[in-house]
Specification:
Helix content: 25-40%
Number of helices: 8
Largest sheet: 8 strands, mixed
Strand content: 15-25%
Number of strands: 10
Radius of gyration: 19 Å
Order of helices and strands: EHEHHHEHEEHEEEEHEH
Distance between the termini: 11 Å
Length: 294
């Protein structure tokens, strides 16, 4: 059965999305169109490129995640030197290795630019800090004077995955100059709303996979110091837009995967933790399908 899919962001916790995808495949569902943010954009792109869950799991097993952390070399032999790059380059790591890896895996399946895909098949979210607005790629590229068809899919995903201060932002030249783009999760970490208007005719079900508890099971933030305040502030900003939408619609069509205990930037996960995340995704999907009526 054909369905549309939405994959949330969550950094390295996105491994759980792959586990859920495996269970979705077992049920005989095939994704016709997909959308995602950050880690969800990577999984969405690999799925629409034609990778099976087994193939994606193999790619991730073979990948040394720490190699994606391509820090700039410093001539200053001091521990704090790398933090200078956060000030000047706006991120600890360049992000080039991440884009390179995605590019290589998509090209194996014959995908380079969005012209290699049917229209609306893949859409990802980024955040334009220069203009203070959300960007849907490739749809919104025309606003920047850029042809969507000629734009690199890997570059779009790199934009969506640019976790603030962790990966350097992407500088995109447009008709208005240079724009700074970062992780789409800053403004919409779970863009299920993308399919709202389009799916009013019930062409096919929309299934979401979200790396969190459902809104109704969300734990209250403990705020006792400035660090906890910042964490709660950022999470609220990140999730408020999507949570308001989910509270009204589609909650019954979302696989919620609570991933507490793993940091989004924990790129040096042990094999045990990797497999635990994959299994968590499978288990949550199994539970979901035991009662899902589409």
């Amino acid at each position: 059965m054909k369905i549309d899919g939405v994959f949330s962001g969550g950094g390295i916790k996105g491994l759980a999305l792959v586990g859920a995808y495996e269970e979705i495949e077992k049920r005989g569902f095939q994704f016709e169109r997909v959308a995602g943010t950050s880690a969800g954009s990577i999984v969405a792109a690999l799925i629409i490129a034609g990778y099976t869950s087994e193939e994606i799991s193999k790619l991730l097993d073979e990948l040394d995640l720490s190699k994606l952390l391509d820090a700039r070399k410093s001539l200053i032999p001091l521990p704090f030197a790398k933090w200078l790059f956060v000030y000047w380059k706006l991120g600890l790591y360049k992000g080039n290795e991440l884009e390179k890896w995605i590019k290589e895996k998509l090209e194996v399946k014959g995908l380079k630019t969005f012209s290699d895909l049917p229209p609306q098949t893949l859409r990802v979210i980024a955040s334009d800090l220069s203009n203070g607005q959300m960007v849907v790629l490739p749809d919104d590229l025309v606003k920047y004077g850029i042809s969507p068809d000629s734009f690199s899919i890997a570059k779009a995903i790199r934009m969506s995955c640019s976790i603030p201060y962790f990966f350097e932002p992407v500088k995109m030249r447009s008709i208005d100059g240079v724009n700074i783009l970062v992780d789409g999760g800053v403004l919409s970490n779970f863009p299920m709303w993308l399919f709202d208007n389009e799916n009013e005719q019930k062409t096919r079900p929309v299934l979401g996979i979200k790396l969190s508890h459902s809104e109704y099971e969300h734990k209250k933030h403990e705020i006792r110091n400035a660090i906890q305040l910042f964490a709660a502030l950022f999470e609220t900003m990140k999730d408020a837009h999507d949570a308001r939408y989910i509270s009204k619609k589609h909650a019954k069509n979302i696989i919620f995967i609570p991933t507490e205990g793993v940091l989004a930037t924990e790129f040096q996960l042990t094999d045990e933790k990797k497999h635990a995340l994959l299994q968590l995704g499978k288990d949550c999907a199994k539970q979901f399908f035991s009662s899902w009526c589409y």
